[in-house]
């Protein structure tokens, strides 16, 4: 489902395209040039991301936000709208999210690290219940790394903090965002403040986090070592997929700079796995069932070339540049 702010941005792009295109063509730089570059970088592998941030839509902005950073106050939606079964992805990486929003569990020799906590209404079912279904103990959760401070990613953090004593990790800027936007009854206590390049080590696992502002003021992207039947791989996760909610040139430029920087970091590290915090943008919707059906000797659905994360970030960078040219 396209989120409200995504639609709002697309609406602005469509309405302003005819007047701003002539301006964008000065010097030979056009939105179409960057969309084409994004499409090339996407290939057949990153079409979900391309569709999310680069493809114009014929829709107009929705009347009410579908992805308000503030967790919803009314009762939860029916489970049929969001529940999915958990799954093992790598030897030490598990999917414990819901239909549209991802949560990942990284197992280590000293406990579990959770990446993103989905909504407050789904955390107990999907994360806690999902771990149990996978034969893991939720009491082993030691760290929770939250990619950014929106309700669909931080909503369940307080539950994990209160029930299991998990340490919650956010950047300083997004702790401030949480304190401002998340209502008190589900707001986690301020805990670990992540710094750029910080290493979160638990047992035999080390996750490196990078502060990549753009989607939010302090979104965190990360590199996560994973193994497939003992063979090492490196997964990358981009901290926020959609553009900054205010469609102005400075905010786009922040997003562009972060995407370019993290792409270079992930490329240099040789990340050959890309995961996301929404299931549509990394193909988890289709890949997770393929992992479950995978036969011995078959390639892993999530493993790609060592430049896959760099190309993913190139899609984000080029799509944002195209959008910026359309609205400037």
Structure description:
This protein has 328 residues and is α/β, with parallel strands linked by helices. Helix content is 38%, strand content 19%. The chain has a seven-stranded mixed β-sheet with strand order 1-2-3-4-5-6-7. The protein has a five-stranded mixed β-sheet with strand order 8-9-10-11-12. A hairpin with a 2-residue loop joins strand 8 (198-202) and strand 9 (205-211). Helix 1 (4-24) crosses helix 10 (308-327), helix 2 packs antiparallel against helix 10 and helix 8 runs antiparallel to helix 10 (308-327). The longest helix has 21 residues, at 4-24. It is globular. 49% of the residues are buried.
- Please compute the radius of gyration using only Cα atoms: 19 Å
Mean pLDDT over the full residue set: 88
Q: pLDDT under 50 segments (min length 5)?
A: 1-26, 57-69
Largest sheet: 7 strands, mixed
The separation of the N and C termini measures 27 Å
Instruction: Count the E strands.
Output: 12
DSSP summary: helix tally:
10
- β content, as a range? 15-25%
N-to-C series of helices and strands? HHHEEEEHEHHEHEEEEEHEHH
Oligomer: single chain
The assigned structural class equals alpha/beta
Shape: globular
Q: Major sheet: order of its strands?
A: 1-2-3-4-5-6-7
Proportion of residues in helical segments: 25-40%
């Amino acid at each position: 489902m396209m989120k409200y702010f995504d639609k709002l941005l697309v609406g602005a792009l469509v309405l302003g395209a005819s007047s701003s295109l002539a301006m964008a063509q000065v010097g030979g730089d056009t939105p179409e040039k960057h969309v084409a570059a994004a499409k090339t970088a996407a290939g057949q592998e990153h079409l979900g991301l391309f569709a999310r941030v680069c493809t114009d839509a014929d829709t107009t902005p929705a009347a009410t936000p579908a992805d308000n950073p503030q967790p919803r106050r009314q009762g939860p939606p029916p489970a049929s709208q969001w529940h999915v079964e958990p799954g093992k992805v790598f030897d030490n990486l598990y999917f414990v999210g819901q239909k549209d929003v991802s949560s990942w569990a990284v197992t280590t020799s000293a406990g579990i690290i959770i990446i993103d906590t989905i909504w407050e209404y789904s955390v107990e079912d999907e994360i806690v219940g999902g771990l149990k279904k996978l034969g893991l103990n939720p009491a082993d959760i030691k760290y929770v790394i939250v990619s950014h401070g929106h309700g669909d990613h931080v909503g369940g953090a307080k539950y994990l903090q209160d029930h299991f004593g998990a340490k919650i990790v956010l950047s300083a800027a997004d702790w401030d965002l949480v304190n401002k936007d998340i209502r008190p009854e589900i707001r986690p206590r301020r805990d670990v403040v992540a710094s750029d390049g910080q290493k979160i080590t638990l047992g035999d696992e080390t996750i490196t986090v990078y502060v990549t502002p753009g989607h939010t003021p302090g979104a965190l992207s990360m590199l996560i070592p994973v193994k497939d039947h003992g063979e090492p791989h490196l997964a990358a996760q981009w901290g926020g997929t959609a553009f900054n909610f205010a469609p102005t040139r400075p905010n786009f430029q922040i997003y562009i700079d972060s995407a370019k920087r993290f792409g270079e970091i992930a490329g240099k590290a040789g990340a050959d796995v890309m995961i996301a915090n929404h299931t549509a943008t990394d193909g988890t919707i289709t890949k997770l069932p393929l992992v479950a059906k995978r036969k011995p000797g078959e390639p892993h659905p999530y493993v790609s070339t060592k430049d896959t994360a760099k190309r993913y970030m190139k899609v984000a960078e080029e799509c944002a540049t195209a959008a910026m040219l359309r609205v400037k």
